[in-house]
Amino acid sequence: MRAPGHDAAGGDQAFGVAGKANLIAVVWRGREKLHYLNPMPLHEIYERWIGKYERHRLRALSDLKKGLEQTKTRKSNMIKKDQFVT
Description:
This protein is α+β, with helices and mostly antiparallel strands. Helices cover 67% and strands 14% of the residues. It has helices at residues 8-20, 39-83; strands at residues 24-29, 32-37. It is elongated. 0% of the residues are buried.
């Protein structure tokens, strides 16, 4: 099944480029052609270019998210307790 407005040649070209970049692996089963994502090149790009520059910012965002979630949980627990006080 193809997306509207896209032809098989365009898909083949995109898969060809991704295959040459080692981003996908192609496996043939009879007439069936299967494409699998190869995560290693993406991981290597992350490690080389993104990881060393963004690691501290991502950690700070993660800590902020966890802190906000804990605060929200504590507040909802306090509201539940207050509802039962008469």
